[in-house]
Amino acid sequence: MRCATCSPLPGSGPAVCSRTTPIDPKTHGTGLPFNKYSWLTTHNSFAVSGTPSATGAPLVSMPNQEDSVTDQLKNGVRGLMLDTYDFKSDLWLCHSFAGKCYDFTAYQPASKVLKVIQAFLESNPSEVITVFVEDYSAPGSLSKALAAAGLTKYVFPPAKMPANGADWPALKDMVAQGHRLLVFTSKKGREGSDGVAHVWNYVVETKYGSDGLAKGSCGSRGESRTMDSKAQSLVLLNFFTTNPSQSWACVNNSSPLIDKLRTCYEASAKRWPNFIAVDFYMRSSGGGAPLATDVANGRLQCGCDTIAYCKANAPFGTCTLPSSSPSSSSPSTTRPPTTHSSSRRSFSPTQAPALAPAHSPSSISSPSSWPYQAPHS
User: Fold this and answer.
1) What is the pLDDT of residue 15?
2) Which branch of life, at top level (predicted)?
3) Pairing verdict, β 106-109 and 90-94
């Protein structure tokens, strides 16, 4: 849990205590294809508030996150979005414009974050990380940086990635084969020069920034195929404003994000997102982006409203419900007992919502009715 005000100004407004970590998607096994898991993803993972530019110049680029990539990985983030540029005879991470990096938009050399990823993979041999590179570098720059950081041995070879929307290998097989780093680049033709895959051959992606936030719609990013394209087996949901805002994230990373999951499920040929990308992932007025990841994993892995309800070693759709409470009239308490397991477990309001374990997205109760919506301290 993290307790802070929704305003970025210290001491302004009441503190909101929010989850920072999703339930580990591997909780119920690693035998499913990689595209049957959902991963919490940070937009501009390197753009951390309070970070001075490594060039010594004041940064004018607004931050998108509030803790280091090291801490993001500790908190269960498994998707990282990085913007790479050739700058000062090296590969740098910059939050810039017009395809060029400047002293005042340069955060740090890419090597610093890549070495953090290497250290995490080395220390956590069952984990898989996905890196989305918005690439403004020359051919060969990325592969050189990956090699220097000791990451080449972990990269999933593009030649072995599934074509035409086929299932990915099982997560356990990817781990066993050492293919624990997926690197997707926005540039075409980098399979040969850098050994990394062109993202939109394998991923459909929603509109990014404020254009993608319209309620009730889920359009695709311009470079991506349409969201209902079955030629790509991975789905990336972007949910953040064009101009980063902690206060916006605090309110909207909760119920509006869950609403967007359902909208995009319908738009994406009834597929739940594999990557949920947000700004300020630790901020919310409820379960936040970690809960959204739990919801997607529940639907993907067992057909339940959250992975917290998945029942181990049971058929798809068998869900374990939380104990009913006199103070809560959840729809789940009125559903016929023959539709789910009769066993019960108790969950904290910060762990999972009281949702019905039916198998269609329409069964998800309105997030605004969840009892833990705004747990102020």
Assistant:
1) 79
2) Eukaryota
3) antiparallel
Q: Is pLDDT above 60 for 78? A: yes
Nearest to 69, CA basis, from 3, 122, 114, 124: 114
Dist. CA 112–CA 150, nearest whole Å: 12
Q: Which residue has the tokens 């947000």?
A: 278
Q: Strand 321-322 vs strand 344-345: parallel, antiparallel, or unpaired?
A: parallel
User: What's the whole-model pTM score?
Assistant: 0.86
Task: Provide the 8-state DSSP code for 302.
Answer: T
User: pLDDT tier at 4 (50, 70, 90 boundaries)?
Assistant: confident
293 contact partners, CB below 8 Å, separation of at least 6: 22, 23, 25, 38, 39, 40, 76, 276
Backbone angles phi and psi of 261, in degrees to 5: -55, -45
Cβ proximity of 233 and 226 under 8 Å: no
Please give the angle made by the CA atoms of 29, 130 and 132, to the nearest 5 degrees: 155
Q: Under DSSP, is residue 148 helix (H, G, I), strand (E, B) or coil? A: helix
When pLDDT is cut at 50, 70 and 90, the band that residue 329 belongs to is very low
Helix axes 288-301, 255-267, angle to 10 degrees: 30
Taking only Cα atoms into account, the Rg of the chain, rounded to an integer number of angstroms, comes to: 20
Q: What is each CA distance from 36 to 31, 146, 155, 304, in whole angstroms?
A: 10, 27, 20, 13
241 has which bridge partners? none
Domains of the chain: 19-301 (3.20.20.190), 312-377 (no CATH)
The CA dihedral of 36, 209, 111, 65, to the nearest 10 degrees, is -90
- Give the strand pairing for 234-239 and 275-278: parallel
| Structure tokens given for 369 | 């009715």
